[in-house]
Amino acid sequence: MTLYGDKRLSDDRPTVQVTAVTWPGDEEPPGGKSAGSAGGLRSRRVQLLLAGVLAAAVLAGIAGVGAYAYAGDVPRGTTVLGAELGGRSRADAAKELRAELERRAATLNAPLTVVVGEAKAEIMPADVGLAVDVDATVTAAAEADAHPVSRLVGSRTVEPVVTVDAARLDATLRKVLGKQGRDMTMPAIIFTGTTPKPVYPKPALSLDPDQSVQVVKAGWLAGEPVTVPVVEQAPATTREEVDRLVAELAEPAVAAPVTLTTDKGSVSIPPTAIARALRFSADDAGKLTPRVDVKRLRSALGDKLAKIEVPPKDAGMTISGGKPKVVPGRAGQQVDTAALGRDLLAVLPRTEGRTVTGQLKPSEPELTEEKLATLGIKERVSTFTTRFPGGLSSPRSQNIIQAAKDVDGTVVQPGETFSLNGHTGERGYAQGYKDAPVIVGGKLVPGVGGGVSQFTTTLFNATYYAGLEDVEHKPHSYYFSRYPAVIESTIFWPDLDFKFRNNTPHGVLIDTSWTSSTITVSIWSTKIYDSVKTEYGPRRNITKPKTVYLEPGPRCIAAVGSDGFSQDAFRVIKKDGKVVKREKFSWTYSAEPRFICAPEPS
C-alpha cells in the first residue's frame, strides 16, 4: 500500500523499493577512506550484503508477479459474453459461464427471426440444437494467450463455442425457403430412336448449409434477426458444352454402324443399339460424362453375340431319389465388357475407321458348385399342391406346366428377392404360352398365358408355408374354390407380379412337378421353424352375384358366379415350441357375376 498526499491507493501487485548502493570496486568519494583500510573492507562487505538482499528481493518480487499472473487456469482479463473468467480454475470458469448463460436464458431461448429470400419465419433455438458448449468455451478461454506479460496485464474477449444441428437447421430453413428454391436441372442427352435430344442445365437456387450455420450462430448470440443467404449454384456442364457433346459425339455416334471383330468372327453394332447403349450421366455437381452401358448394348444386340460368345451356366440342383443333387455349372467365353465399352466410346465420334477389336475372356458362372454346396439346401421344408381340370391337353393346363418348367430348379440365395415376372419375362406365344381365360375388366376373356395364376398361387403357398417373406402378391378379384381363400395370388404381365424374399441364412431351391390334374411346388432348404399354419377368421360382408348377359360368340366365356366376402387369414409360425410370428392377411372378394352368353330376355 502506498500513500500519495491525502490519498491512499491500494495495489495488489508486489512493490519493490530499491535504494542506492555502492558496488564493490567503486572509488571512494573525496576525503573517504582508502580501499586498503579496515573501514574500506567493512564497507565492501556491507555493499555485498546489500547487493545480496536486493537480488533476493527482486527474485521474490518476480516470483510473486509470476504467481499472480499464472493464478488459475484462465488468463487474467479474459471475458466470455461479459462474464469475467480470468484467474479462475476451469471448473470455476465453467460455473461462472453457466451462470451467465442462465442470466441470458430469456434471450437465448427466445424465437429467432430468420429471413430466407422473401420469406420470414421464427425458429426455436432448441429445435435446431443451438447451444453454447461450456466446456469447449472454457478450454478456448484457457488457451487464449499463454504469454506471461499478456497474462499479467492484458485483456481479451473470447467468443463462445456454439453448437448447432446442421442437418436439422438446413431442413428447417428449406421449409422457410419453400417454393422460392429450385432444384438444379441436370444436363443430359437422351435419344429418341437414333436422334439425340439435349437437356440444357439450369442453376439451382438453394441454401449453402455451411453459410447458414455461420450466420445463424452469429445472429443467435447477438439476439438479432438473421438473413440467411440464398445462393445460386450452376451445374458444372454449361449449355455450350452440351451442344458440343451433341455435335462431336452423340450425332456421329449413331450416323453409321460399328464393327466388332473377334477371333470367333465379327458382329455389326447398328445405330439403334448404339443409341440404347450410349449414356450421358451427370454427377451431383452437374458434370456430364458419356459412357457405354455394355449391359444395355448386350440387350440391344439380342442373339447377335451368340455366334461369337459362349455364355456361362450357373451350377444348379435337382431332386434325385428324394434328395437334392448338385448339377455342375459351366464356364463361358465372353467379350471383355470393360475394354469393349472403352474402345467403342473412342470410335463413336469418327466418321471412318469405326471398328473395335473385342477380346474374348473366360467367364465364370455367378453360382459355382463350391458356393452352392455351402448354401445348406438339404431337406424339403414345404410343399403345396393345387388341382386343375381339363387334363394336360387344354391350353390353360399347358400354360400352368410351362410356368412350372420355367421356374423348376431355381436357386434363390440368402437375402435375394425372387420375382416371377422377372424370372419368366413376358409370357407370350414365342415363349410357349397359349390363349386361355383371364380376368380383364371384371369378366373372363381369352388371353395369352391364362392359367399361370394357378401356378402363381401354388408357388405363393409353398413359400408361405416355408416361412419366407412375402414381398408382393395380389389375390384374385373373385373367389375360386380351387384356391385357399385369401392365401392366393394372381399375376399379369407386366403390371401384377408375385415376389418373395429369402429371409433365411440358407439357399432356397424351387422344385416343381405335375400330373395330368395337379401342380405341385416344393421348397428345399434348411428347416428353421417347427410349423407354419393358417388360422382363418369368419367370412363377413357377404354379397350375392348378379346375372349378366353377354353377347354370344367365341370371346364370351360363361361363369356360374360366386359370392363376394371379406376374410382374414393369419400365418402362425412356431419355433422351439413358441409362436415367433403371427402375420395377418386380409382380402375382400367381389361377387363374380353369373355370366350368360345369350341375349338378355325381354
Secondary-structure map:
Layout: E1 2-4, E2 7-9, H1 38-69, E3 78-80, E4 83-84, H2 90-103, H3 105-108, E5 112-116, E6 119-123, E7 131-132, H4 134-142, H5 148-153, E8 156-157, E9 162-163, H6 166-177, E10 188-192, E11 195-199, E12 204-207, H7 209-222, E13 226-228, E14 230-233, H8 239-253, E15 258-262, E16 265-269, H9 271-277, E17 278-282, E18 288-292, H10 294-301, E19 316-320, E20 323-327, E21 332-335, H11 337-347, E22 355-357, E23 360-363, H12 369-373, E24 379-387, H13 395-407, E25 410-412, E26 417-419, H14 420-424, E27 435-440, E28 443-448, H15 452-465, E29 469-472, E30 499-501, E31 508-514, E32 518-525, E33 531-536, E34 540-543, E35 547-550, E36 564-575, E37 578-589, E38 594-597
Parallel strand pairs: 3-8, 5-13, 15-22, 35-38
Antiparallel strand pairs: 1-2, 3-4, 5-6, 7-9, 10-11, 12-14, 15-16, 17-18, 19-20, 21-23, 24-32, 25-31, 26-30, 27-28, 29-30, 31-32, 33-36, 34-36, 36-37
Helix pairs in contact: 2-4, 6-7, 9-10, 13-15
Keywords: Membrane, Transmembrane, Transmembrane helix
InterPro entries: Glycopeptide_resist_protein, Vancomycin_resist_VanW, YoaR-like_PG-bd
Pfam families: PG_binding_4, VanW
Describe the structure.
This protein is α+β, with helices and mostly antiparallel strands. The protein folds into three domains: about 1-70, no CATH class; about 240-370, Roll (Ubiquitin-like (UB roll)), CATH 3.10.20; about 375-595, no CATH class. The strands form 15 sheets. Strands 24-32-31-25 form a four-stranded antiparallel β-sheet. Strand 36 (about 565-575) and strand 37 (about 580-590) form a beta hairpin. Helix 2 packs across helix 4 (about 135-140), helix 9 (about 270-275) packs antiparallel against helix 10 (about 295-300) and helix 13 packs across helix 15. It starts with a strand and ends in a 5-residue tail after the last strand.
